[in-house]
Amino acid sequence: MSDEYDVELTEEHKMLRDMVRKFAEKEIAPVVEKDEKEHRFQRELVNKMAELGLFGCPIPEEYGGNGMGYLAHALVTEEIGRASGSLRVAFNMQTMGTALSIFKWGSEEIKKKYIPALMSAEMIGCFGITEPDAASDTAAMTTTAIKDGNEYVVNGRKMWITWSPVADMCVLFAMTDKKAKHKGMSAFVMDMRSPGVTAIEIKDKLGLWACPTGEIIMEDVRIPTGNLLGEEGKGFGYLMQELISTRLTAAAGAVGTCQAAVDESIKYANERNQFGQPIAQYQMVQEVIARMVAETEAARALVWRCAIQKDRGLVNNMRETVIAKYYACKAADEVPNLGLEVLSAYGYSNEYPIARILRDGKVYKILEGATNIMKMIIATDALGIKKANR
Ligand SMILES: Cc1cc2nc3c(=O)[nH]c(=O)nc-3n(C[C@H](O)[C@H](O)[C@H](O)COP(=O)(O)OP(=O)(O)OC[C@H]3O[C@@H](n4cnc5c(N)ncnc54)[C@H](O)[C@@H]3O)c2cc1C
């Protein structure tokens, strides 16, 4: 990467990126392998990221953000994702899936209560959409929120919720009118310490070992009506809009994963000697490196296009967000695989980071919408069946 050729970035963007890169190299890189092996969630590092103001790029200063915008958010997310897939999730849990949703749809009271606390990491956030039997088909969710005086009574179960075992609050989607299907969905802010909320960690997963993920069981949980986001019954529309934001973050994190794989592979190719010279001299190794670099840069270009559009006010750019998400997340699966070809046997050992990068890269094709769903949105838009940008 050459700084002067990054023509899309302002000097401010470059300074921010350099600052975050230095932070990640100094604070995250030395502990990442140990934290992953020990499945240790680093709350202290989340606090440090908050102290540096990293969560606040798309949030106005008035609510504790810095208003630097979406491209700044993508740059920060990539740099943290490059160092740790587990810590990358913070940019959806503190910002896009929580603070930004509350900023868009919350009452003034709710905004003041939650957004600054998320920005400073005084509160840890999560968002609950997926259920055991309602995943890609979000409108099939069965968690209910039934109005009872000044409160909603919530019953149901959420599955695969990032940070739920450590979270203080949750942006929760539930059915206020089950019969109305997607028109009966609403969004709430739920206090995770409320009576009736139980979060159970899913401990044995393929990757992201330092990132607690869990189920949320809700039994007669009472949420004040003031914690309803926007209007009752409009939750499905809000969910789609929230996903347009969270998918940008996932795509930016995926680029970080790709870049980490590129870095490790280049280093190794130059250091590893076989047949009397570095393997970097062999054309077949160069071919692999070329593909890794090109895939990473292509993914980054799509992420930046999407973020720049949002910075120009085109925040509902579903089409471009989904294209970036599809491409970058596919690359986060493929580029570390290519890295394993370069590192070969040593890459198969946990002595080198490529094994962790490969494991963590797998998740991007699943979360914030599986790859098939991205392809479906791209194709139905292209075929004129359903316009993605509305
Ligand atoms: C580590 C991790 C963290 C997560 N964090 C969160 C979180 O914080 N909050 C949250 O709400 N959710 C979270 N999720 C859930 C995630 O968003 C879902 O896993 C995702 O939406 C897809 O659901 P599924 O994996 O159950 O797949 P399913 O929906 O069961 O689909 C299975 C397969 O069928 C395909 N498929 C489904 N429908 C179609 C169709 N119509 N056409 C073609 N193919 C189709 C899918 O592409 C997929 O390949 C997380 C998941 C993981 C693994």
Strand line-up in the sheet with most strands: 1-4-5-8
What is the top-level CATH class of the largest domain? Answer: Mainly Alpha
The CATH architecture classification of the largest domain is: Up-down Bundle
How many β strands by DSSP? 10
Note the beta-strand portion. Answer: 5-15%
What is the string of SSEs from the N terminus onward?
HHHHHHEEEEEEEEHEEHHHH
Hetero groups in this structure are: flavin-adenine dinucleotide
Please give the radius of gyration in angstroms: 21 Å
Low-confidence stretches: none
The assembly state of the depicted protein chains is single chain
Tell me, rounded to a whole number, the average pLDDT. Answer: 97
CATH superfamily of the largest domain: Butyryl-CoA Dehydrogenase, subunit A, domain 3
Would you tell me which CATH topology of the largest domain applies?
Butyryl-CoA Dehydrogenase, subunit A, domain 3
Note the overall shape: globular
Number of domains: 3
- Taking the alpha carbons of the first and last residues, their distance comes to 35 Å
What's the helical proportion of residues? 40-55%
Structural class: alpha+beta
